[in-house]
UniProtKB/TrEMBL annotation:
SUPFAM superfamilies registered for this protein in UniProt: Glyoxalase/Bleomycin resistance protein/Dihydroxybiphenyl dioxygenase
Protein name: Glyoxalase/Bleomycin resistance protein/Dioxygenase superfamily protein
Domain VOC: 13-139
Family matches, as Pfam families: Glyoxalase
Keyword Oxidoreductase attached: yes
GO molecular function, one term: dioxygenase activity
Organism the protein comes from: Herbiconiux ginsengi
Gene3D superfamilies in alphabetical order: 2,3-Dihydroxybiphenyl 1,2-Dioxygenase, domain 1
Top-rank taxon: Bacteria
């Protein structure tokens, strides 16, 4: 469906979304995201001067664009107060309580434990290595459309 406010899609087709994060403690970040959260390693490269990068698969990627009111509403539901940075990562997991506990055991700070949302997901908020704030969300089903889960 197109109209004046939503013109026809351009010919460009994005094949992949890749978020690049600079981590001062590379090994700690790899341990948390690959080894604890379980993101499979797709590739790793090394270069001169101890340059290292690892590419981790994170399932299906989406770009979620939210206005300030939506961000404030999500913070209120998940945490009870404003805490979101401008960019936050959200990972869908099969068990948000277990994933939250595993990441906390690996050194992540739990901002808010798994909380049931109005859109029927179980969301937890954490501050992790590489200075990233993340949401872990578990879809509980029964809510086909509505507000974002992240």
């Amino acid at each position: 469906m197109t109209d004046e406010s939503h013109p026809a899609a351009p010919a460009i087709r994005v094949a992949q979304l890749r978020v690049v994060v600079e981590a001062a403690d590379f090994d700690e970040a790899v341990a948390l995201y690959r080894d604890v959260l379980g993101l499979p390693e797709q590739a790793a490269f090394e270069g001169a001067g101890d340059a290292r990068v690892i590419i981790l698969e994170a399932g299906r990627a989406t770009l979620e664009i939210a206005n300030p009111a939506q961000v404030a509403m999500i913070d209120e539901v998940e945490v009870g107060r404003p805490v979101s940075p401008r960019i936050r990562l959200a990972f869908e997991v099969s068990d948000s309580a277990a994933a939250t506990a595993a990441l906390a055991d690996a050194g992540a700070d739990v901002i808010a434990p798994p909380t049931r949302t109005p859109w029927n997901s179980l969301n937890a908020r954490l501050h992790t290595t590489a200075d990233l704030q993340i949401t872990l969300f578990e879809e509980l089903g029964g809510h086909e459309t509505g507000p974002t889960t992240a």
